[in-house]
Amino acid sequence: MKNVYIGEILRNEEIAQDCFLMRVALHVSFIDPRPGQFVMLRVSGLAEPLLSRPFSVCSFERQNRSCSLDLFYHVIGRGTQILAGLLKGTQVEILGPLGRGFEVAGHKKNIVLLGGGMGMAPLIYLAMQLNKDACSSSSAMYFYLGAQNAEAVIGLEQLKKLSFTIFTCTDDGSMGEKGLVTQIFLKDLKKFVPGETMIYACGPKPMLSALAKILQKTKYPCQVSLEERMACGIGACLGCAVAVKRSKKSSLAYKRVCADGPVFDINEIVWK
Amino acid sequence: MAETKSISMSVKIGTLKLKNPVMTASGTFGYGGEYADYVDLNKLGAIVVKGLSLKPRAGNPPPRIMETPSGMLNAVGLQNIGVHTFIEEKLPILRKYDTNVIANIYGETYDEYKKVAQKLTSAKGVHALEVNISCPNVRKGGLSFGADPKSAAAVTRKVKEVTGLPVIVKLTPNVTDITAIAAAVEKAGADAISLINTLTGMSVDIFTRRPHLKNVTGGLSGPAIKPVALRMVWQVLQKISIPVIGIGGIMNAEDALEFLILGAKAVQIGTANFINPQATIEIIAGIERYMELNGIKNISKLIGTFRS
Fold first, then answer.
1. Is B111 considered catalytic here?
2. Is A238 within 8 Å of B69 when comparing Cβ atoms?
């Protein structure tokens, strides 16, 4: 039987403009998350926020007698404002790891990751796994990292320790190239052969939607990690619906980001 | 403790016997299997499954949920796999468990209610029907039936005509006088009443100046609605004599006990399942502990002991 874990906050600090990193210590029995999986987090004993919030696993480390989980979050509403005020030592309830993660394709010749804003969180964990993966030592790995401005760039330090070729871009040009991450990637697209490439992406909806458009008539495989408001995280509340293209078998047009995702084939999603 | 064993929590809703008064509320527990990793389903009084319609329903476009003070709004729009797939794929899984399966049903016409009820009655493993006449999310649907005593009674009669299973009618709080609906449904032959469904509400995003939910309005659930639910259960209990099942913002055993003391024969746990997947089990244990501490050996000695 699975349980709700009680974790203890080890760190909770602003690492970029309105972006926080929370490190939570967990019991050693917590299962190693796969890249792309997420957890539901709630502050023990607080009436508000009432619902748990979903967070992608950004990093996971296992020590002898405990393990720790790193999560990124952007302070955006009441719930995350409350989270930002939590002190070291505060207890949180963690449910997870949840969802289907990325399919790690270490054997592909080219591995391309595209991250925008908070979408960096699951990609950093994926990048660390790909880096560890022996198969991928023969792969060329590229990371396209986008943010609004230099202050909002997250994850760059971690990435620099890994064997990725990194392209940075910002909306205002304050770091790296000026422009959108999808535009920068588009310029390089022809360097990659579709059959030898795997693309992973996570970021704001407009970014993923733009990427879908770029890849629409190509044969590049691409896995995207989506975000949606959710209440339960385990497939029951049906709150986190995402519109998918209808398959012949079923007439249902929505899937659950939590249980059917959060990682989807980019072509499966209806982008508006 | 040896004495623990002698505590009886079993209750009867018409002919339906429950090992304890704790059920899951429809729409918050999927089709049961979603929670099997977290909850020993055998320990539940009953599982009320997600509302079933004749044909599968895609549901509403997102965003579908929003947290509000001490509660949440949802506008899922009755997304479900349809009664046929439920019987083929979900019921065989549920049959393995030693608990009652209550199928929540929903239709857009009297005929649809009848057909869904018929199909579930002839399927093996359904122990009761809960008739949703109250879902506020689909414009053409439940609301019109549940908001008027005549149509509420008519739905009840139609379903009773085609089934021998106990029929529970789930009432909407979005009415002027819920006791009038309850009385009409009782007269029409309902075996029990469950209340309350969600309260219609809304929430505005001040930055985009749009509604937080794509559907604009949604159903409010969670601790915010508990006092309203208690008031309505109390009012209805004074008007009817069939069993009442209390629903609305029950987060822990104390909340459940409030409803039982008022006179509800059983309770349903909804939003709490989202926050803590083991809420039902903890509530059952908490009620048992309360009985132990207060020397109550049989739950029937607790139900309806409210002193006004």
1. no
2. no
Tens digit of each residue's pLDDT (9 = 90 or more) over B261-289: 999 999 999 999 999 999 999 999 999 99
**Domain A110-225 is found in CATH 3.40.50.80:** yes
Residues of A in contact with B278 (CB under 8 A): 3-4
CATH code linked to domain A5-98: 2.40.30.10
Domain ranges for chain A, please list them.
Answer: 5-98, 110-225, 228-272
Looking at residue A162, its amino acid is L
Query: What does the alpha-carbon distance between residue B283 and residue B305 come to, in Å, rounded to a whole number?
Result: 19
The whole-angstrom separation of Cα A8 and Cα A6 is 7
Instruction: Find the catalytic residue in B135, B230, B250, B299.
Output: B135
Min Cα separation B183/chain A (Å): 32
Q: Strand A66-74: give its sheet, edge to edge.
A: A53-56, A38-43, A91-98, A5-16, A19-27, A66-74, A59-62
CATH topology for the A228-272 domain = Dihydroorotate dehydrogenase B (pyrk subunit); domain 3 (2.10.240)
pLDDT recorded at residue A178: 93
d(CA A263, CA A244): 13
pLDDT per residue as tens digits for the range A240-259: 999 998 766 555 589 999 99
Helix, strand or coil for residue A146? strand
Homologous superfamily of B2-60+78-201+220-301 in CATH? Answer: Aldolase class I (3.20.20.70)
Report yes or no: B123 and B161 within 8 Å, Cβ to Cβ: no
Average pLDDT over residues B15-32: 97
Say whether the ipTM exceeds 0.95: no
Radius of gyration of chain A (CA): 18
At A60-78, the pLDDT tens digits run: 999 888 899 999 999 988 8
Q: Is B144 helix (H, G, I), strand (E, B) or coil?
A: helix
Q: What is the pLDDT of residue A251?
A: 57
DSSP secondary-structure letter at B22? E
Chain B partners within 8 Å of A259 (Cβ):
34
| Min distance A124 CA to chain B CA atoms (Å) | 27
DSSP B52: B
